[in-house]
Design goal:
264 residues; mainly alpha; 86% helix
Length: 264
Amino acid sequence: MLSRPGALAEMGRAMLRWFGGWWQIVHLGALLLVLGLSPSSYTRENRAAMARHIVLGTAPILLWFTLLSSLIGLVVIRIVVVTAASYGLSQYALQMVVRVLVLELIPLTAAVFVALRIGLPDGRELARMRLRGDLDALRQKGLDPLRHEVLPRVLAGGFAVLMLAAVAGVVTLVLAYLTVHGFTLGGLERYTRTVGQVFSPAVTLIFTIKTFLLALAVSLIPVASALYDQPRGRIRTSAELQALVRLFLVMLLIEAASLVGNYY
């Protein structure tokens, strides 16, 4: 009985820390949005840093992700087409392929891939810079760490998600056409009509919003967790693990909202 008020107080503090962590992420996102829209953020030095992060972040993984997604997509396309043909539903095979792969799996896979290869390593690097005092050293020199170190990484992570999703989506559409119609232009009209029926204005809008939100979550949450999270007491949870939990929670909510918007 004596320990119950203490447990309730600790639970209350944990809830406040949880809400405080999300508020810091939202606040950092608002600051970076202002900086991203400010012309003063695009000086020659900052443009060079942004270009370097974008190239070094996207170029090494673009080819591997495209090949991996193409291989998996080709297997899924073949399975769907053969299964639909066996049940006499060949006319629905392409729609199912486009909906499952292009609309749902590719953006989500691209976000997870970028989170593991770019977002979390960038967050780890910023956490080390904070512990070493590099960010404070920039402030003492009159430089804004958000503008010079954080903004280029966030933009690079978001760009990588959009680029991987776009390239893999186009390659998957081409593979779907070749699997069904082969190397001929005879089925192009029918194929474009089928794809156009899937990408209605509402579905296209939801797909675009979902992809941008996934890109924002992947690029922002690991960085915010690295800048603000602190180990508490005996719980030595790293900022990277906290970022991973938050990131997958947000991605799950985005995907669930997308499914509700597309199919309900």
